[in-house]
Fold these 3 entries.
Entry 1:
Amino acid sequence: MGLIDKTQEEYYLGPDGIWDSHDEDYGSYQFVPINDIINTFMVAYVGENKNISKVKRTDVQFHAMRAIQEFSFDMLPQDKSIEIDVPPGLYFVLPQDYVNFTKLSWTDTQGIERPIYRTNITSNPSAPLQDTDYEYTFDQNGNILKAEKSETLKRWNERSTSGASNANSAFNINNPDLLGLYAYGRRYGLDSELAQANGTFYIDNANGVVRFSSDLRGKLITLKYISDGLGSDEDMVVHKFAVDAIYKYILYAILSTRANTQEYLVARHKRELAAARRNAKIRLSQLKSELIAQVMRNQSKWIKH
C-alpha cells in the first residue's frame, strides 16, 4: 500500500486549491513526523519475542525527542535563517528557537550574501556599579546593582558612531593599534577577522542579541542558525535518511538505562547505533561525484567521473 495519501492536485494546489498560496506542504514526503516514528517503534520493537518486552510510550517519546535534539546539532538538516535590517543600535535579537549560528552575511544590491566575520576584540561584559571607593553597590535585597550597558559596549558604540570602525581605519590590518595588540610577533600573516571589509559581529549571549560594527548599519543581514528540532510540532520531523538511526538511538537509550540489562546487549546496540548514525551522516551529506568534480575543476584539476 502506497504511503502517499494526497492526489497530485491536492499536493500542488493545497487545501485552498490555489497554486503557491503558502498553504501547501511542498517537499514533506522526505520527512517523517515524530508521532509516526514513535508508533512504528512501538509496533516493530516492543512486544513478546522482540527487542523490548515492555516499555511505556512516554519513555519512547522522551528518547525520540532527545534523539531529534542530538541529531539536529550535527546531522539532521535543521538549518534555519532570518533576514533583517540592522537598526541604528547595531544589534538584533536572536530568534526564539536559536541554539547556535552557522553563518552571518549581509546582502548587497545584487542579492549576493557577503560573509561577516566574528570578532574577539570586544564584548559586552557584566558591569557591577561601584561607588567612589570602587566598592560594589547593592540593592535592598542584597543583590549587586549592575549597569544596563557596560562601559566597553558604550565605548564601542561611541567609536562606531564616530566612524572609526570602517574598512579603511580601525579594521584595516595596517592599523597600528591593532598591529600592536594582535599582530605582535606574527606580522607575516593576516587575521581574516580584520583583513576584510564586510564588517564584524559578536554574539552577546547574556542579552540574547547579535552586535555589529558600524559599517553594517542599515545593511540587510541574514542569520543562518541551527535549532534543536523541538521548537514546534512542524520542527519535530526526521528526514527519511535518518529514521533508522532514530530507531537505533531509542532502542539503545532504553536498554542502556534499564536495570539488569545484559551488558553485551547494550554494547551490541551501541555498535548498531554508531553504524546507523554513520550511514545517516553519509546519506545526508549530499556528497555527489558531480559536485566534487565541479570543485576540483575549479582548482584546475581534471577528474573523470
Entry 2:
Amino acid sequence: MSYSRVGIVGLGYVGLSLVKSLCAKGIQVIGLDIDKTRVLDLQNSISPNESISNEDLQRYMSSGTLRVTTDPKSLKEISAVIIAVPTPLDDRNQPDYRPLQKACEIIATSLKDDVLLINESTSHPGTLRDFIAPLISQLREDSAKSIKFACSPERVNPGDPTFDHSNTPRVVSGLDEEAKRGVKDFYAEFAEEVFLASTPEVAEMSKLLENSFRLINISFINEISDYCLNRGIPIREVIAAASTKPFGFMAFYPGPGIGGHCIPVDPAYLLKDALSHGSQLPILQTSLDRNTSRHELLIEYLERELGGLSGKKILLEGVTYKPNVTDTRETPSKSLFDGLLSAGAKIAWHDPLVSNWNNSKPSKVSSEFWDATLLLVKHNQTAVSELLENSKVVYDFTGQLPSSGGRVRPI
C-alpha cells in the first residue's frame, strides 16, 4: 500500500525532521500540535529549531505538501499517523507519560478506522501493546478493532549533517502481521534500510539499549578522564592510542556531562520498567547517577584550581547539550551553573545560538575579564579568540582548542 498522505502528531525535533523527509519525497503531511504559538509560527514559515529551515517550510506550505493545525479532526482521512511527542522525565526524574497519554486521547476518535498508527516516541518495552493500544481502544466506540498498531522508535540525531531519515536504518514492528507489513512498507518509501523486529517489544527495547549503551560508556570515560586529570595524563591522547587497536575498542570522549532528550532520559524508562518487573540494573543505575552528579566533581576540581570559587567571575560558554544545535534540554550546563552559583561564584553564560536560557539573557564575552571560562560546547560560530582575549584561563571540555601559553586547560 502506498501512503500518499501522512499525519504527524507532535512538531518538535522528531516531528519536524519527519516533515522534512516526507515532504521531500512528495508525500503530503498534516502536522498536528497542541501548542498554538508553535503552529502559528510554522504556518508563517518560522522554524523553532534546526531540524527544518524556514525556506523548506515556506516551500512545502506554498506547494500544499504541508499543512499544520491544532485540529485533530484533520486526521480523519489520513491512512498513516505517526505519534512523535516527547517522553520526558518529571520533577522527580521519573518517566512522564502525560504527553503520550494526551496525544492518544486527542487523536483517538479522529483516526480513520483502518489507519496505520505508528508510535515513534521512546518508552519502555510494552508501551504500544499495554499502553497505547488499550487506551485508544477504550476511547473509541469501535474498540479500535481495525487500527493497525505499529512502532518505530525515533533515531533522530539533531544537528547531524550526515545521517537523516533516509540513510538511518529504521527498526519497526507491529501488533499483528498486517501492522508489521504496513509499517515496513511505509518506512521503505523513504528509508534505505528497514529492520522488521518480531515484536514491538524488541523494537522498543532496541532504542533503550542504544542509549543505555552510550550512557554507560560516556559515564565511564568521564570517570577515567577525572582519574587521568588528577594524574596529569592527557586523556584524549590515551583515547587516540587505544583507538589504534583495530578491534575490541570503541572511542568515547569526556565532557561536562550528558544532555539532550535521549541519553540521560531513556535509561530512566528502562530502569523504571525493570523495577516494575522485579529486575535490577545496577550498572545502568550507577552510570545514570554518576552523570547526574558529575557537576559536583567538576566544581570541586575548579575550586582547587582557582583557589576557591567565592567571588570568582566565571563564564559558561556553550549551554546547549551538543554542538551546532539550539537544544538545551537536559543540558549539563544547568547543574554546573547552579552549583557554581551556590559556591559563591559570579556566574554568567554565553552561547551564539541561544538568546534566552535559565530565565536569563546571555552576557557578552567581552563584558568582563573572566577569572575562568568553561568552554562546554564549541559551535561553528564560537569565537575562540574572543574567549582567550577575555579570560585568565579557559577550561576546554571539547578537546578542540590548541594550547595557548598555558591559558587553555583541557578537561
Entry 3:
Amino acid sequence: MSAAEAARIVVLPGDGVGPEVTSAALEVLDAACHAGGISIAVEQRLVGGAAFEAEGAAISPETFERCRQSTAILFGASGAPRWDHLTGDARPGSALIRLRRSLGLCVNLRPVRVHPGLEERSSLRADVVRGCDLVVVRELAGGIYYGERGRAGEGPEERAFDTMTYSRAEIERVASAAFDLARTRRTRVVSVDKANVLTSSRLWREVVTDVGRAHPDVALEHALVDSFALRLVQRPRDLDVVLAENLFGDILSDLAAALSGSIGVLPSASLPAAAQPGPAMYEPVHGSAPDIAGRGIANPIGAILSVALLLEHSLHHSDAAARVRAAVDRVIADAVLTRDLGGTAATAEVTTAVVAALPA
C-alpha cells in the first residue's frame, strides 16, 4: 500500500451491542487518523444474525470477498438468543469462524492491562492487580476446536470425542509471534501446556523450546495449565507474554479478564502468520450482550482499544495507537465510566471524552 493509497477497513458491526461499540470505535479511529494524516476508506457490511435476516447467511459471499480484499476488519459482536436455533452457515457465530479459518488468522492477541484507576474494580485485591500488563497469545486456527470429532453408539456405550491435533508448523508460527512480541515488551514468555498428560502438549513444548533457542534475548518458561491458572490470579504482575494453544488460550484469556475490572475494556487482534499477506481482524472480547443492546450503556473501551491494535498492526502507526491508549487512560482517570465500571456515563459520553482527550 503506497503512502497515498487509503487503507481499506471493512466494518462488521454485527448484533446486540456490536453496532453501538463499533460506531464508537469508528469515531475514535476517524479522529486518530485525521490527526495523524492517515488515509482510510471505511465500508460497513452486515454479519451475524443481522446478515441472516437480510441475506440468508451469517456472512454473504460478497461480504466475505470484501473482507478478503481489505487492509483490516473491525468486528463488533454476533449472535443473540433469537438465533440460537440456527445451524450451519446460518448460525451467527459461523461467520467469525469462517473468517478466522479462511483468512489464516492463526495468532490471537489478547492484551490484559489494569488501567490506573480501575484497580478497585477488579475481582481481585487492588494490590494484586495494580500495574498488571500482560498479553495472552493464543493459537487460533488449530487444536481441539478444529480436530476430528464425533459421537457413536447408543445407551450406556454412547461415546463422544474431540481430537486435539497440532503440527510443528502450526506451533512454530504462533510461538514465533509470541517471542517477537516479547522483544517489544519485557522479553519474557511463559508457554502454557499440559505436557505431563497430553502428547500434543509434549510436541508443543518441544517446538516452543526450539523457537526459544532462536530468540536468546527472550526468557522462556514452561508451565502446566492448571497450576498456571492459579498463578494468573495470584501473581499477574509477574507475567509479560503468555503463549497457549487454542483451548487453553481461550480459557486463560477469559480468566484474565477478571483482572481488568470488566470484560468491556478488553480488545483483541487476530493476525495471520508473519509471512502470510492478508488482512487482520480486530474486535472487543465481550459478546453481543443482547440484554443491554440499544440502551446506550455498553462500554466502548474494548472496541476503542481494538482500534489501537488496528492502527499498530495493520496500519503500522504505533504513534497513533499510543495516542488512542493515552486518551483512554485519561478518560478512565477522569472517571468517565460506564455502568460496568461503576460509573454512570453513556456509551456516547465515553466516546466523546476519548476523542476530546486524543493528544495532537
